[in-house]
Please model this.
Amino acid sequence: MTPVSIPRTVLVLALLALPALASAHDFLLWPGDVEHDALALRLLVHDGHALGDERGFRREHVSRFFAEDAHGQRELEGREEGAPPFAQVSGLVPGGHWLAVDRVAIDIELAPQVFNGYLDHEGLDAALAERQRRGEGDAPGRERYARHLKAFVQVGAEGDGVGCRRLRQELEVVFHDDPARFAVGRTVEVELLELGSPVADHPLDIWVEGDPDVHAHRVRTDGRGRARVTLRRPGRTVFRTVSMKRCEGCDAVDWTSRWTAATVDVAPMGSGAPRACPQG
Model:
């Protein structure tokens, strides 16, 4: 789909009115409780410090909306009127389910100090250094960004390994331990993939609902694009990061970014037995 452009004047004025780091925010998929094989799926905005606005479904902003379970993948429909919640999802049979959204890429232009602060705050050292090397430290940041979101839902106690599956989103956190059995105190392994390839030495934030900000707990992937994470607290937990790449040969932008956020639930300590994902 064609990237969506935001009017430059409106965007720059709005950003200049905010603190330098307030421009970066997350969209998070937030499943409700399953009742009679269905749930309300919400799309929440996290401003870096707290959950805020809720967004409805807008078809022009979504390139793919789907679910995956043990029976395969199926397309989902949002609420066309655009009012929250984002969708009502039915057909949730016992087992694991991924609910996922890929959003259409958007072109934006950020004031120099806002863009530099954003790169620093997200731990994107290579992109920040590249801007300095090119003498662009005082130039606006022209960026094309897309979001790749997913949330895991377990129905019933019987695990089926669906939580281990890769959904082939452009940027994705893949779990090497089954999120159906996540509980406090366990250490789990995850892998960060971009366009199917491991992303080495990259920041990954693990935010638990109630943390003071999304960067409260950060790890880095190793040379294989993997990280081991100890689950700190029960409750809703989000694995999130952003990747920034130079957009060579692009006219409208200089950078392309991909955001990912994977929402899972962590049970209290001692709930169920841990289960590693099948190898290969």
